[in-house]
Description:
There is one protein chain. The chain is an all-alpha fold. The chain is 77% helix and 0% strand. It contains twelve helices and no strands. The chain has helices spanning 6-33, 36-57, 67-95, 102-115, 123-133, 138-164, 173-197, 199-226, 237-249, 258-266, 274-302, 304-309. Helix 3 packs across helix 11 (274-302), helix 5 packs across helix 6 (138-164) and helix 7 (173-197) packs antiparallel against helix 8. The longest helix has 29 residues, at 67-95. It is globular.
Amino acid sequence: MEGHSAPPLTENTGQSIAERAFGFAQSMRRMLGKYRGPIFAICAVLFLAGFWISAGRLDLSFSDLALQYIALSALIFIPISMIYGALNFMIMARGAGINIPFGKSLKISCVAAFAEFLPIPGGALVRGGAMMREGSGAVDAGLHVTVNALLWISCSAVAACFALGGFYTITHPVTLALGAGGALGVAACSWWLMQKAGGMIALAALMMRIIGLGIAGARLIAAFLAIGVAVQFLDLYPFVFATILGSAASIAPGGLGISEIVAASIAVLSTVPPEAAFLAVGLNRLIGFAVSGIATAIISVISPAERGDMRPPK
């Protein structure tokens, strides 16, 4: 009988650590919420100023944009990413013991994607609220949303490390930090999911992140081509990491300005001009905002009752 006492203790200890981390994240979110207005204003100014300066340095005007690549992203890649988001949410909900059909998951994911851009970032609230309405507890829903978000960031960090890991950059502190932090994050999040939801869910969540990185890369390469900058596919992943990190941090709506600044900063370690990185990440944001906004509007008209059910709980 004594041999069966250690596993529950280990699981409870891991659960306690995860809950404390979640509680800390919620405290930080509430603290930042007090200054949400000024933070949003500052980040909006940084985004607009950075966009204008970057376009000026590249001598790029609206007429220079390759609209076919914008259309490719808006009509193909972003709808695919929405379908991916729905499947990903279904797996996350399943890990919490909830079954959500694809149609409803797609609507939730579309609304959540648009909610990321609102003055009060609400993507996590929409997903967590939807899980709570399906029967999950508040803490459990919050933990699953948080751990899956951390897994997403960690996977993109590992991909960024490999993308930057050529020649001298393999020993650069930024590259080493991305690789070590990302690998540790993937291991920790996967372990938590295995303990909480089982090995199959943990494996499915990890595989979905790998697929998601491919979709995110396709969106960004279309944005780079739209501004006339050719980038190798694997070289995109430092900027994919910047996009994901800024959005997940929720310091500003959708990482407004944050993702672009991180992308421009990381670009100094690559062959991509920082101005091009800033513009591509920003353009990708604007296209995503437009498409998710249209999708949310359609959902609001067609299924107003279901849209109301997806509002985050008060």
